[in-house]
Amino acid sequence: MLDEIIRKHALKNAFEYGKAQPSGIVGKVIAEYPDAKKDMKHTMELIAKIVKEVNELGKEKIEEEMKNYTFEEKKEEGERKFKLEGLEEGKVITRFLPEPNGYLHIGHAKAAFLSYELARQYSGKCILRFDDTNPESEKLEFVDAIKRNLEWLGLEFASENFTSDKMHVLYKFASKMMILGKAYVCDCNQEVMNKNRYDKIACACRERRGGENLHLWDRMIRGEVEKGDMIVRFMGNMESENSVMRDPTLFRINKTEHYRQGNKFCVWPTYDFEVSISDTLDDVTHALRSKEYELRDELYYAILSSVNMRKPVVYDFSRLNIKGTALSKRFLKPLIEQNKVLGWDDPRLPTLDGLKRRGILPAAIKEFVLRQGLSKVESEPAFEDLLAINRKMLDPVAAHYFFVEEPVKITITNIAENKKAQLSSHVKGRERNFSVGSEIYISREDARHLKKDEVIRLKDLFNIKITKKGKTEIDAQFLEGDAAQKMKKLHWLPVDEKQTIPAEIITVSTLLNEKGEFNEDGLLIKKGICEKNAHDAKVDEVVQFERFGFCRLDRKEKEKLYFVFSC
Predict the structure, then answer these.
(1) Active-site annotation holds for 99
(2) Who's near 16: CB < 8 A, 6+ residues apart?
(3) In the 8-state DSSP scheme, what is residue 400?
(4) What is the pLDDT of residue 81?
(5) How far is the C-alpha of 218 from the C-alpha of 349, rounded, in Å?
(6) Catalytic: 330?
(7) What is the number of alpha carbons within 13 Å of residue 258 lying toward its C-beta?
(8) Is this model's pTM higher than 0.70 or not?
(9) Domain ranges of the chain
(10) Residue 45 DSSP one-character state
(11) Does domain 400-565 have CATH number 2.40.240.10?
(12) pLDDT attached to residue 379
């Protein structure tokens, strides 16, 4: 985590000045990762090591590696607006177009925020339209999940509609295209059609006239034709170098019951047909979509030209790819079905439910995706960039508590009476009061590094000197005095069940391993105790366990708390 942040800033420093300097990046590293200050000796050693590695790279290699990171741009005077053709104040209408065939992930959040912000910045409006024309994979469950996710992100749309509610209108446009000779019914089998398209050869079906096409079309929508026996194709250009334009499919038969329309329709439009017609019907002025559709822009405009409809401005932005994870539903869905993860809200997943469970703030997601902007340049930002933004937003607002993992007892001599301690939680109204006697707990990891005769500071409490170190218990002596600057400072908890409560923390690493496969070891559970004061936190609240990190309260019981590590 820390080494990735250092490397990012070292690369940028080397790119800008020819050679990276530790002094030029240390401030930026600490600003992005405040915990680096806790062990500056280690931090500076790591910075020196990574700066040396970066300075040995050539300029081309530095530029190539920089593509793996995102860098916060300096803000200009006022709010910078997106720059596209046809943008007029108060007249911009955009749309977010999710298909309800799964749960939203952070890639969808990028598309939603870009469309939403473009409209907002020009005092326009953004509409929500469900692209629900594939009855085999769409469910009401997914519609509800999408609405819940968008509400969580803070997006309020000007209106909401469903493409499946436009079916009668879409049918009329299909008929119009056949009358105008812009579409035809094809009954070639799939293998022959694919070969003809590859070889740039038109089939005999292309010669059908309007009346015959309308007759066959009528049979299709009446349910008299079986799936795969007929389709409706666009009269494109079979010799086009853009294979998309070689008479693509506009409608296909699917008799599966639709989650919203039931069995009212058995012929459904393809995305290419419905998105172009629906955008114009919805008065969309600017249609934003990811670059995977770039070759289909020609078809989008050709369909609208064929029926003499207004053309929105289509803009294709780079698809979001994040290092160490996968956004494809084809990859994520089998993980759910095979019970390899905890569900769609598993904190390892890039789904919005997964990010929410991990304690990632909607504002952090918004800043992260908008940093990518409308650029067409492909990049692969690190997930750590999102965590750094989230950490920065949580730091001033999260309540502070102690969590001791795998507690080890220290018995302290020379304490005349219980010591009272009042610690700040950094949240008004949540005082942390402790009564500390001769026994305290520290984490097993901290205990492992202690040495006999070492003097340490129990954070915000007092100093002790280690007098005896055993395998399971440690003896120490109470010392008067304040904390020294270089003294090791450890968090702790009293050995008192009235002041502590058992706790578990789910910690996660990357979803994918170095081979790009599912990381079987990506989830671990850490067990220990935390202060009972943490029971004041609400479920979904993110707190900061000092010297551990930010954690979201996943659920709580009277005698145990469960958290998910955030960042």
Answers:
(1) yes
(2) none
(3) E
(4) 67
(5) 45
(6) no
(7) 23
(8) yes
(9) 2-66, 81-327, 400-565
(10) H
(11) yes
(12) 78
